[in-house]
Amino acid sequence: MFISRIICKLKIKRKPYTPERAYRTSVRPLAVFFVAGGIFLFFGSLSLPITMPIPFIKTESINRIIMALTSLILILIGTGLFFKSKVAWYGLFLYIAGGTLFISAGFILFPSDQTDLLCSIMPIILDTSIGIGIYFATKLVFVNKDGKS
Questions:
Q1: Among 14, 24, 89, 115, which residue is least crowded by beta carbons within 10 Å?
Q2: Considering the entire predicted model, what is its pTM?
Q3: What is the number of structural domains in the chain?
Q4: What is the dihedral of CA 84, 94, 46, 112, to 10 degrees?
Protein backbone atom coordinates (compact mmCIF):
# COMPACT_ATOMS: atom_id res chain seq x y z
CA MET A 1 0.00 0.00 0.00
CA PHE A 2 2.78 2.39 0.94
CA ILE A 3 4.75 1.72 -2.25
CA SER A 4 1.69 2.24 -4.44
CA ARG A 5 1.13 5.66 -2.84
CA ILE A 6 4.72 6.63 -3.59
CA ILE A 7 4.32 5.47 -7.19
CA CYS A 8 1.11 7.49 -7.54
CA LYS A 9 2.73 10.62 -6.09
CA LEU A 10 5.78 10.29 -8.32
CA LYS A 11 3.50 9.57 -11.28
CA ILE A 12 5.58 6.61 -12.41
CA LYS A 13 3.86 4.80 -15.22
CA ARG A 14 3.81 1.05 -14.88
CA LYS A 15 4.59 -0.93 -17.97
CA PRO A 16 2.04 -3.60 -18.87
CA TYR A 17 3.06 -7.20 -18.30
CA THR A 18 3.22 -8.31 -21.93
CA PRO A 19 4.40 -11.71 -23.17
CA GLU A 20 7.72 -10.22 -24.28
CA ARG A 21 8.28 -8.60 -20.90
CA ALA A 22 7.32 -11.85 -19.16
CA TYR A 23 9.88 -13.66 -21.30
CA ARG A 24 12.62 -11.14 -20.48
CA THR A 25 11.93 -10.91 -16.74
CA SER A 26 10.74 -14.42 -15.86
CA VAL A 27 11.58 -17.09 -18.42
CA ARG A 28 15.05 -16.07 -19.56
CA PRO A 29 16.58 -15.76 -16.06
CA LEU A 30 14.92 -19.04 -15.04
CA ALA A 31 16.43 -20.71 -18.11
CA VAL A 32 19.90 -19.39 -17.32
CA PHE A 33 19.67 -20.66 -13.74
CA PHE A 34 18.51 -24.07 -14.93
CA VAL A 35 21.43 -24.39 -17.36
CA ALA A 36 23.94 -23.18 -14.75
CA GLY A 37 22.48 -25.52 -12.12
CA GLY A 38 22.65 -28.42 -14.57
CA ILE A 39 26.29 -27.71 -15.37
CA PHE A 40 27.25 -27.44 -11.69
CA LEU A 41 25.30 -30.60 -10.84
CA PHE A 42 26.97 -32.50 -13.68
CA PHE A 43 30.50 -31.64 -12.58
CA GLY A 44 29.52 -32.11 -8.93
CA SER A 45 28.16 -35.57 -9.62
CA LEU A 46 31.47 -36.56 -11.20
CA SER A 47 33.85 -35.23 -8.57
CA LEU A 48 32.20 -34.49 -5.22
CA PRO A 49 31.45 -37.16 -2.62
CA ILE A 50 27.79 -38.15 -2.37
CA THR A 51 26.79 -36.86 1.08
CA MET A 52 23.00 -36.89 0.59
CA PRO A 53 22.16 -39.95 -1.48
CA ILE A 54 18.94 -40.46 -3.38
CA PRO A 55 16.51 -41.95 -0.81
CA PHE A 56 16.14 -45.60 -1.87
CA ILE A 57 19.27 -46.11 -3.96
CA LYS A 58 22.19 -47.43 -1.93
CA THR A 59 24.98 -47.69 -4.54
CA GLU A 60 27.11 -44.57 -4.90
CA SER A 61 27.84 -45.16 -8.59
CA ILE A 62 24.12 -45.36 -9.43
CA ASN A 63 23.57 -42.17 -7.41
CA ARG A 64 26.22 -40.45 -9.53
CA ILE A 65 24.66 -41.68 -12.78
CA ILE A 66 21.19 -40.49 -11.74
CA MET A 67 22.58 -37.10 -10.71
CA ALA A 68 24.42 -36.76 -14.04
CA LEU A 69 21.25 -37.66 -15.98
CA THR A 70 19.27 -35.19 -13.89
CA SER A 71 21.81 -32.49 -14.70
CA LEU A 72 21.42 -33.20 -18.42
CA ILE A 73 17.63 -32.92 -18.04
CA LEU A 74 18.12 -29.55 -16.32
CA ILE A 75 20.33 -28.33 -19.15
CA LEU A 76 17.77 -29.46 -21.75
CA ILE A 77 14.89 -27.77 -19.91
CA GLY A 78 16.88 -24.55 -19.48
CA THR A 79 17.92 -24.47 -23.14
CA GLY A 80 14.35 -25.14 -24.25
CA LEU A 81 12.98 -22.40 -22.02
CA PHE A 82 15.56 -19.96 -23.36
CA PHE A 83 14.30 -20.62 -26.89
CA LYS A 84 10.59 -20.49 -25.87
CA SER A 85 9.86 -24.18 -26.30
CA LYS A 86 6.44 -25.15 -25.00
CA VAL A 87 7.65 -28.75 -24.65
CA ALA A 88 10.38 -27.54 -22.26
CA TRP A 89 7.75 -25.56 -20.33
CA TYR A 90 5.69 -28.70 -19.80
CA GLY A 91 8.90 -30.61 -19.04
CA LEU A 92 9.69 -28.10 -16.30
CA PHE A 93 6.44 -28.88 -14.51
CA LEU A 94 6.90 -32.62 -15.00
CA TYR A 95 10.40 -32.25 -13.53
CA ILE A 96 9.07 -30.38 -10.49
CA ALA A 97 6.21 -32.85 -9.94
CA GLY A 98 8.38 -35.92 -10.54
CA GLY A 99 11.12 -34.76 -8.20
CA THR A 100 8.62 -33.89 -5.50
CA LEU A 101 6.89 -37.26 -5.67
CA PHE A 102 10.16 -39.21 -5.92
CA ILE A 103 11.76 -37.58 -2.88
CA SER A 104 8.57 -37.72 -0.80
CA ALA A 105 7.98 -41.38 -1.67
CA GLY A 106 11.58 -42.21 -0.80
CA PHE A 107 11.36 -40.66 2.65
CA ILE A 108 7.93 -42.19 3.36
CA LEU A 109 8.76 -45.72 2.17
CA PHE A 110 12.29 -45.90 3.58
CA PRO A 111 12.42 -43.79 6.77
CA SER A 112 15.72 -43.72 8.62
CA ASP A 113 14.91 -41.38 11.51
CA GLN A 114 12.16 -39.14 12.90
CA THR A 115 12.88 -36.17 10.65
CA ASP A 116 12.02 -38.12 7.51
CA LEU A 117 8.32 -37.34 7.89
CA LEU A 118 9.13 -33.63 7.78
CA CYS A 119 11.47 -34.25 4.84
CA SER A 120 8.62 -35.96 2.99
CA ILE A 121 6.03 -33.22 3.61
CA MET A 122 8.13 -30.09 3.02
CA PRO A 123 8.99 -30.78 -0.65
CA ILE A 124 5.29 -31.18 -1.40
CA ILE A 125 4.46 -27.83 0.18
CA LEU A 126 7.47 -25.91 -1.15
CA ASP A 127 7.63 -27.38 -4.66
CA THR A 128 3.90 -27.00 -5.22
CA SER A 129 3.98 -23.33 -4.27
CA ILE A 130 7.11 -22.73 -6.35
CA GLY A 131 5.58 -24.55 -9.33
CA ILE A 132 2.38 -22.49 -9.12
CA GLY A 133 4.40 -19.28 -8.93
CA ILE A 134 6.52 -20.26 -11.94
CA TYR A 135 3.37 -21.19 -13.86
CA PHE A 136 1.73 -17.80 -13.37
CA ALA A 137 4.98 -15.88 -13.95
CA THR A 138 5.67 -17.65 -17.26
CA LYS A 139 2.12 -18.33 -18.46
CA LEU A 140 1.95 -15.27 -20.73
CA VAL A 141 4.89 -16.44 -22.82
CA PHE A 142 3.58 -19.92 -23.55
CA VAL A 143 -0.17 -19.31 -23.92
CA ASN A 144 -1.51 -18.61 -27.41
CA LYS A 145 -3.31 -15.39 -28.26
CA ASP A 146 -6.69 -17.17 -28.08
CA GLY A 147 -6.03 -18.05 -24.42
CA LYS A 148 -5.28 -21.75 -24.91
CA SER A 149 -1.97 -23.27 -23.98
A1: 14
A2: 0.76
A3: 1
A4: 150
